[in-house]
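Human:
I keep going back and forth on a fold encoding question. Comparing notes only helps if you start from a blank page. Show me how you would write down a chain together with its backbone fold. Write it directly below this note and I will take it from there.

Assistant:
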Amino acid sequence: MPDSTIFDRINSLANEEAGLWERAADGGGLETADQERLEVIKVELDQCYDLLHQREARRAAGLNPDEAHIRPPEVVEGYQQ
């Protein structure tokens, strides 16, 4: 998967996230389904950023970035900031 595809996915997720927050700001708050979707978006964004970091690290090491893979949520959500 090329970096541009990952960036497209990140942009799509970020736009969806912004839309959910805009709806919430209109005074109605977030419904349970929206809250759940925001959590899914957060995890997917973390996976995308992790994949980009993996690809960059592989490039820097002279390895094929296409061999990077999406890590499961329990891995990317366990990283410490």
Remarks:
- The chain has one domain: 3-76.
